[in-house]
Each structure stands twice: as structure tokens, then as C-alpha cells.
Please model this.
Amino acid sequence: MRKKGGETGKADDFMSSLTSTEKLLTRIRFNLKCKNERQKKLVRLISQKEITICAGPAGTGKTYLACAEALRLITTNYSTYKKILLVKSVTVLPGEEVGFLKGTLKEKMEPFMVSFVDNFEKLIGAELTQQLMDAGVIQIQPLTYIRGRSIDNSIIIIDEAQNITLPNMRSAMTRIGEDSKMVIIGDTKQIDITKKSESSLDKICRMFSEVDEIGITQFEREDIVRNKLIIMIDDIFDQEELKGRPS
Model:
């Protein structure tokens, strides 16, 4: 009994030595199970590389896996990684730019960041997700707000990368600082910028394919895990696009 009490005392001493943020991180628990080899590869690349680029269709789990690995890294290496920075290119209709929407930056970005928040809530629940956001462990930023910064001690997840032009992608990728990781994810079939040819996602996958320091992985339609109906939907849209192309 004395031994048990001693162990309890050590645990209490350990908890009392933690900051409020560190105590919050000790509550994170989830069990991540990859559903195919490409999912395993993506998780492995994020763990091993400073920059990882992943392209693929909707429903393959790209954002979910990036969020999960970011949580794992920050809970096991908090001395290195202090926050998860979620970045998105905000592509909106003319006259509705983020700067003209009412509210704080956080309030302006919330509609664009629902996909990120959904994934964290699936992993750790809505309450803990909100607490991590309130504590600044999870932060959200539009792409334009990271220009000119050197982002240290962070896991940076850039989503919707298909909507980022090559000059803007260059600016984004060169923001990575000391003790940081960057994960760039997107779907080349969902390009929303006016000139689709200006999308950088396919281009950077090709440009950095032989660079050892940067991990590249591309999901295919057979890797879709969310709902197999997505494969049929994608096929029908592909057929419709082919009809509209000049012969």
C-alpha cells in the first residue's frame, strides 16, 4: 500500500509541475488506425520529414490524418512543437474578401475552417478541441496572414493547396522556421481559382519529387475511405467534363 501511495504522490507531483497547457495536452487520447498503405505512408512522412506534400481526391483522409499526426507530435514533443497552425487559401466571391467580413480574424475564418475543426472534433471531441483553440495550441490563419513571417516551433497544415498559385506557394513554403513541420494537402479536382492552370499543387509534387528532405505522396480513387459513393460521383463528373472538352 505504501508503494502505491508513493506512486500516486509522484504522479501528483508531476501534474502539479505542468503548465495549464501541458495539463490540457495530457487529456488528448485517440486511437488512429490507417485504412490503407498510402495512409500509413502519409503518417510516416509527416513524422519523418520537415515538409510533406499530399495530393488526392476527396474522402481519402488527407486532412484527418494530418490533424491526427499533428496532435500526436505536439503531445509527445511539446518542448519542440508549441502549436498547430491551420492555414487555408481563402477563395471567395468578388467583394466578399475576408478583410471586409464582420468580426475578429477568428470569427472571419471560422466558416472556412469547419473542415479542420470537424476533424479535430472527431479525434478528441468538441470540448477539448475548443479548449485547445482557446489556449492557442490550435490556431487558424488565412494564407495571406503568414506572409513575411518565420514560423518556429509549429506544425503548419496548409489545406486546399490546389487553390494556391505558384508564387503564393513559394511564399508559404518559405515561412517554415526552426523546429517546425509543414504539411501541404489538396485535391487537384477541386480547383476554385479563376485560372485553373495557375494551381500549384501538381507542380510542386513534380518539382520536389526528387528532394529527399520533402515527402511526397499522392492518393488515388481506390484510396477513398469516407464513402464509396464518392468514387461513383467522381466518375460521373469526370465523364461530364470529358463531354465538354473540344475533340
In short: Residues 229-244 form the longest helix (16 residues). The radius of gyration is 20 Å. Strands lie at 51-55, 83-88, 138-142, 154-159, 181-186, 214-218. Residues 92-96 have pLDDT under 50 and may be disordered.
